Amino acid sequence: MSQRIQFARTGGSDVLELVDVTPAAPGQGEVRIANKAVGLNFIDIYVRTGLYPAPAMPSGLGTEGAGVVDAVGEGVSHLTVGDRVAYAQGPLGAYAQMHTLPAAKVVRLPDAIDFETAAASMLKGLTVQYLLRQTFELKGGETILFHAAAGGVGSIACQWANALGVKLIGTVSSQAKADLAMANGAWATINYSEENVVERVRELTNGEMCDVVYDSVGKDTWETSLDCLKPRALMVSFGNASGPVEGVNIGILNKKGSLYVTRPSLNGYADTRERLEAMCEAFFAMLESGKIKIDIANRYPLAEAGKAQDALQSRKTTGSTILLP
After folding, report:
1. Which residue ranges of the chain lie beneath pLDDT 50?
2. CA-CA distance, 145 to 195, in Å (whole number)?
3. Which domains does the chain have, with CATH numbers?
């Protein structure tokens, strides 16, 4: 027997249950992972609340983890029992001691990267990889605005942007989070609870504004983000922490300077094994070089997944959070 977190109806964190299950044997092209650590991400809350519907109920939760290959299905040639591995994409069910998933979504973990670091950073690190190196390929010298700069994704983005020679302006909600973002390499920060974001961006850039805005907040910051862009610049909306952006008249992009907008996702970029491997190679190289360090600020036992999600949703956390099965 094994244990996993599941939910039978959508709602608050109280719908999450720790249950005993028989781990699924891997089928054709699948592997079973004995998780050593599991990542916690905002998208897990979207699934729990029904914003992103689960395929069936009751459902497992989570898509990110790291551990050891426990069993291998037929047709799998690149992984063997005992391999140290990590993963960041579905199916749902990573909040568990054992997780069975397609081998094509699993990568070998370099010896220099421990399980907790991998579980805390795979989804966030690959997200930053596609945001900064593919959605808009930053080359150095650009000025960008990154919302939630002290969170798990933001902390990695600050470090990666700094390594590229990019001026990252990060929005935060407190002085402590501003200090953290600056320590991670942000060029400047804006405390949105005390300062007008658009006015501060204008001051910091001498009226030039930003080449790109990366916005994971959603509806609450949509127009503010557009107003921080220079003409013909790019708005990257990659999350819905405050709710989804809805009812948009695309004419506003013309009105605000012939702007571009995109709504990317990890699955849209890591859509083949080859692309996933290349993205992981780039991210792992940043970890191994020490240019990016992962701050695991919060660790919870698997049974306290709901408590961990509540802390994340209330924006009380900094850095990354992991569950320990």
Report:
1. none
2. 15
3. 2-121+271-324 (3.90.180.10), 140-263 (3.40.50.720)
List Cβ neighbours of 186 (8 Å cut-off, separation of 6 or more).
Answer: 146, 149, 158, 161, 162, 168, 169, 170
Phi, psi values for residue 251, rounded to 5°? -60, -20
Cα–Cα distance for residue pair 10/26, rounded to 1 Å: 28
Burial of 152 (0-12, 13-18, 19+ CB in 10 A): buried
Query: What pLDDT sits at residue 51?
Result: 86
13: helix, strand or coil: helix
Q: Rounded distance, CA 323 to CA 304, Å?
A: 8
Burial classification of residue 232, based on how many CB atoms lie within 10 Å of its CB (0-12 exposed, 13-18 middle, 19 or more buried)? exposed
Which pair of tokens denotes residue 277?
């491997």
Is-cis flag, bond preceding 58, omega within 30?
A: yes
Question: 146, 157 in Cβ contact below 8 A?
Answer: yes
| Residue 230 exposed, middle or buried by CB count within 10 Å (0-12, 13-18, 19+) | middle
| Alpha-carbon gap, residue 210 to 131, rounded angstroms | 15
In angstroms, the Cα distances linking 298 to 14, 223, 308, 324 are 20, 32, 8, 11
* DSSP calls for 259-271: -EEE---HHHHS-
pTM for this one?
0.90
Q: Determine the 3-state secondary structure of 199 from DSSP.
A: helix
